[in-house]
Write a structure and sequence with these properties.
Blueprint lengths: L7 H8 L4 E8 L18 H9 L4 E7 L2 E8 L5 H23 L10 H4 L3 E6 L7 H38 L3 E9 L5 E9 L9 H10 L3 H14 L9 E6 L1 H4 L7 H9 L7 E5 L8 H13 L3 E7 L3 H10 L3 E4 L1 H4 L6 H16 L3 E4 L5 H10 L3 E2 L13 H4 L9
Helix pairs in contact: 6-7, 7-9
């Protein structure tokens, strides 16, 4: 339904009968993204719907602008500033609830918590409207209400993600998948990298956003502990010389409870020992004190654990970590591997990594291999190990015969 700019003309007509008018904005984006409702249609008759659903004549349609519904509401004359805000907020919540009912929302979102009812609403009392100043007054009201809508969406999304994180932790519903790491010399499976995955339907779009959110809200240790437990308990069968690579941050490994008796117990349950575990330091948090980091890593190495630096070549911090920490493994980032056979600069960088690593007695792992040409190049350069979709995709369960096969059928 097309109207004038924010329905100003009709609002001015109503001023003759109502001294005080408020403006209400409702975010329509969730009703325009797949819900089977007439509310999605541009031709939807909001004037008629407001009359039928709200059952009152003191609310009228203004306009739909940029996925926001704008309606005007007559306000009682005796309300002060604070009372006006309370009146408009309550009216906006009731309007949103009527829209939810119209849209037939039955998902988990429809729990009628106060936070959910206030998601995507904004309101403003309009002061001293006249024909000459109406546009300016309405514009000020739109700015205020839009700011409230934006703030409510951010707060609600944050609250929903916190609720989702707490649910994942309480239900232990994250899972581990495993991607094989192959020896380039003989094609044997050297080990597996354990990768965390969110359950289907999770509000988090992937493990990176999950771990970043957990760190922001002081749940990083609990999530990391659960991920580590899942990685060990569901680990594929390993031969005595095979490894399991587990992603950790320096912030987590610095915790005195990181490698507790419980971790060793998990390993023992699977018939594993610390020498089969490689802690893969990720870039989720930087290392501020390398001297302290060296002491911490020396402690874990004394127990048999090995250390890998992840994403080498993707940034300065990973290169500095290699120099300072002398890891057992360097995992070269996929950005250097991708199409390296066609890029002389990448070839030079990869050869530099291999030469440096061999001099320092560090083993090299090339990540993200997706093409036979990349595999042949890296093998010819002398990389020790390789990982990527060409060699095996991450999966929840790896059969024993794959883990112990003498040959992997690598492309020559």
């Amino acid at each position: 339904m097309m109207t004038s700019w924010f329905g100003v003309e009709r609002m001015l007509e109503r001023i003759e009968h109502h001294n005080h008018i408020g403006l209400i904005g409702i975010d329509l984006s969730e009703w325009k993204s797949g819900l089977l409702s007439e509310l999605r249609e541009e031709s939807f008759n909001w004037t008629e719907w407001l009359m039928l659903s709200m059952g009152r004549g003191d609310i009228w349609f203004g306009d739909v602008v940029s996925n926001h519904l704008w309606v005007y509401a007559a306000m009682p004359d005796d309300l002060g500033e604070e009372e006006s805000e309370h009146f408009l907020r309550g009216l906006a919540k009731r309007l949103r609830e009527a829209m939810i009912a119209e849209a037939g929302m039955t998902s988990n979102e429809s729990h009628h918590s106060s936070r959910f009812r206030e998601k995507g609403i904004g309101y403003a009392r309009l002061h001293s409207c006249s024909e000459g100043t109406a546009r300016d007054i309405v514009y000020e009201g739109v700015l205020k209400a839009t700011g409230q809508i934006r703030e409510s969406m951010v707060e609600q999304n944050d609250w929903e993600l916190r609720h989702e994180l707490e649910r994942l932790l309480s239900e232990c519903s994250i899972k581990s998948v495993y991607q094989p790491i192959m020896r380039l010399g003989d094609g044997r499976v050297f080990g597996y990298e354990a990768l965390t995955r969110c359950p289907e339907g999770s509000l988090f779009d992937g493990p990176l956003s999950l771990f970043q959110f957990a760190e922001k809200h002081n749940h990083a240790f609990a999530l990391d502990r659960m991920a580590r437990e899942k990685a060990i308990r569901h680990c594929p069968p390993l031969g005595e010389m095979q490894k399991i690579f587990i992603n950790v941050t320096m912030g987590i490994i610095n915790d005195p409870h990181f490698v507790s008796g419980q971790t060793v117990h998990w390993l023992s349950e699977q018939g594993l020992f610390p020498g089969q575990v490689v802690f893969e330091l990720t870039e989720r948090s930087s290392i501020d004190d390398f001297d302290a980091a060296k002491k911490i890593l020396a402690h874990y190495r004394s127990q048999g654990y090995e250390i890998a630096i992840d994403d080498a070549g993707a940034g300065y911090s990973s290169l500095q970590s290699i120099v300072e920490l002398s890891p057992d493994y360097i995992k070269v980032d996929r950005s250097l591997v991708r199409m390296a056979d066609k890029d002389e600069m990448k070839k030079h960088m990869l050869r530099t990594f291999v030469r440096f690593a061999k001099k320092m007695n560090i083993r090299t792992v090339a990540e993200g291999i997706e093409r036979p040409e990349e595999l042949r190049l890296l093998r010819s350069m002398g990389f020790d190990f390789a990982q990527g979709y060409l060699l095996g995709r991450p999966q929840e369960y790896v059969p024993l015969e794959v883990a112990t096969a003498s040959k992997s059928g690598l492309p020559s």
